[in-house]
Amino acid sequence: MSGPPRFVSPFGRPRCLAAAAAAAPAGKPKLTHPGKAILAGGIAGGIEICITFPTEYVKTQLQLDEKANPPKYRGIGDCVKQTVNGHGVRGLYRGLSSLLYGSIPKAAVRFGVFEFLSNKMRDETGKLDSKRGFLCGLGAGVAEAVVVVCPMETVKVKFIHDQTSANPKYKGFFHGVREIVRTEGLRGTYQGLTATVLKQGSNQAIRFYVMTSLRNWYKGDDPDKAINPLITGMFGAFAGAASVFGNTPLDVIKTRMQGLEAHKYKSTMDCAVKIMKHEGPRAFYKGTVPRLGRVCMDVAIVFIIYEEVVKILNVVWKTD
What we know:
Mean pLDDT: 84
Helix content: 55-70%
Number of strands: 0
Radius of gyration: 23 Å
Strand content: under 5%
């Protein structure tokens, strides 16, 4: 049987060639417009933090519970019990407003920057390898740290730390921000910037490296292969776990640098040295268990929601 004709009449295109032409672009994956990434990321970030905040609260309390005080909590369960007994279940959500106001723009900046950079760094077939995924994640992490995370986390940690005092002075998010700026200036919302940049940069670099590697492995030679949301969630949880074990020490240092007693430390390095000297190396992994649970759930939820929202946006928002 003869193959398809070499010449095509201007008045009629053979079906076999038309089908081949239509199928040709299928080998190149569809790029996500940064605008869609910003919107989808913001939606995913807002939903995720409402679900996972109690574990973030417990993690922060345990990290702030220094040995010299002496320790107020005997563990995760005791922290939850004391909080609920003293402030009710709502106590586990103290500081949610500050984190919610930050989580939406944080995820928006993260995914927006990642998609912008990854669209520029893909090869001629549209594939993003794991090394470039690492660099794109690093860039996204640094951007979110400077624009959103540092001021947001500083306010959040001050809110949570304020609750442990005998007479809490912050009455709400806006009152707290106003008091911090009034007494400490804008610099008061940018405490621990170096530690935050290091933490967020390494966080997203690790997560996007793992996600890119797993996605490429799963899709193989078919870049358009669909990934089930449950598989995306599993990949996200694995990426989250990798980031926790990779940079929990930086998270501990960042939390100390943003607490109400941050004045005890001259710099990020001074904070690390004092923790090692007075509390030992194990102190750098305080709150690892609650953070592990939160982060795995966090990253899994965010990636699932993000991917599903992007699918919807691709239908209602044409950018090609």
